[in-house]
Specification:
Helix content: 25-40%
Number of strands: 21
């Protein structure tokens, strides 16, 4: 399938082009503002599907709305009609097409041109009136509050919330791409003349700003972001894409002594705690048991032995571990346990605990093996 994409260098276009590059059965025919005009007819002649993302939303003059939105849509239709193309057309319009402003009216006029073309030729036309779109590669400080808030927050810059009670209707870029691929297979959901997209996320502008502003703190507290909430998960993924390239790394607090080190990595009430334990050669760590807290140990480097003993029994169980063979050991409740480095290099163990460490209720009791 050869796919003509107008607005290929825009926010939606970039994401779709990147996704299509992973599909060996699809070829992208990109068209943007700097593409030679003659390419439009060339691509129109060979394309199997048209993704019409091109548009103007921040022009220098009001006339540019008509030129960039309505006018270019007309040029696209003329090119397809001239070569006798039967390629279906998918257009990303805007919910503002129902409003009485220059941008909305230019989008409405573009929609009407496409519907007239569909009626004239019988070629399928899919028009989506998009709400606010968010995701990676969206231009900040332009026309997206999400992009601006993420960009500024990632740089410790102030954000301005003009109306915290304004309800935002948001759609995530990956959800749009899934819908686009369904449309290319002829599997769309329509409501009258228009196609619908889901899910739409609703959030107050003030709540959205608070959510985004909370993300940097997770680096300090090590508390995991709640990925069970779809909007939070998508918003956090978006936020990460705006972190400056020289600020992607952050240090952890290593608790170091002559035995090695113990470092917390990530924790949360729903996911417990993940830590990294390093033991020098000959060192034994642990020798304690828990009532309810349970753990998993995964040695990723070095050689060692993990020992267990039931509180009421004398037998000691041993499991030899080696970083060259990744094996997870469950640490049961009511068993004292320790880990000894029996090799010549540091023993590195990834440890998961069912709950974050609570100094006021550690549930950890010393008992040597």
């Amino acid at each position: 399938m050869d796919i003509l994409i107008t607005g290929a260098n825009g926010f939606v276009g970039k994401n779709v082009v990147a996704e299509l590059s992973t599909h060996k059965d699809k070829t992208v025919l990109p068209f943007d503002m700097d593409t030679p005009k003659e390419k439009l007819k060339e691509y129109a002649k060979i394309c199997d599907f048209v993704l019409h993302f091109a548009g103007v939303n921040r022009p220098q003059t009001e006339d540019e709305f008509i030129i960039g939105n309505t006018g270019f849509t007309g040029e696209l239709i003329d090119a397809l009609r001239e070569v006798g193309s039967r390629a279906p057309i998918l257009m990303t319009s805007s919910i503002q097409a129902t409003l009485d402003n220059s941008y909305g009216q230019s989008k409405l006029s573009a929609e009407n041109l496409l519907f007239a073309y569909e009626k004239e030729t019988g070629v399928p036309v899919y028009v989506y009136r998009m709400p606010n779109i968010f995701g990676k590669w969206c231009r900040p400080n332009y026309n997206s509050a999400v992009a601006t808030f993420c960009y500024n927050t990632a740089r410790d810059l102030p954000i301005t919330v003009t109306d915290p009670n304004r309800m935002m209707k948001l759609v995530y870029i990956d959800d749009i791409m899934e819908e686009i691929f369904r449309a290319m297979e002829g599997n769309v959901t329509k409501d009258g003349d228009f196609c619908t997209i889901a899910p739409i996320h609703n959030i107050l502008l003030g709540d959205m700003a608070t959510l985004i502003a909370s993300f940097p703190e997770s680096r300090k507290t090590l508390k995991a972001i709640d990925m069970s909430d779809p909007l939070t998960r998508k918003m956090y993924a978006t936020y990460l894409s705006y972190i400056p390239k020289d600020a992607l790394a952050y240090d952890l607090k290593m608790n170091v002594d002559d035995r090695g080190s113990f470092t917390e990595f990530l924790k949360g009430s729903a996911m417990g705690q993940i830590s990294v334990n390093i033991a020098h050669p000959g060192i034994v760590k642990g020798n304690h048991w828990h009532h309810t807290k349970n753990e998993k140990f995964l040695v990723v480097a070095g050689k060692g032995v993990i020992r267990f003993k039931n509180f009421f029994e004398d037998d000691v169980i041993e499991y030899h571990v080696d970083g060259s063979k990744l094996t997870v050991l469950d640490i049961p409740t009511g068993y004292s346990h320790n880990i000894e480095n029996t090799g010549d290099t540091d023993l590195v163990t990834v440890m998961w605990a069912s709950e974050p460490f609570d100094p006021h209720h550690p549930d950890t009791y010393f008992m040597p093996l």
